[in-house]
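input
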Amino acid sequence: MERSTAEFLEDGGAADNGTIVFRTRPFGDLTTADRIAFQGALWNVREVRLIGRREGLEIRCVNVNGAG
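output
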């Protein structure tokens, strides 16, 4: 069963563990082995979910350093 975005962010406290959710158009082959660079920080991809019928991607990430 997939967790909702709110559950993902609240898991352990979003501010404490540096979690973030990106929503974007579908692209390429993104996997949990990838990282995202955003605002000078690196984010480990934890989950990738398709939104609708290829309408978008929801990318759930955790900060590499463990803090936001």
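quick obs: The mean pLDDT is 80.
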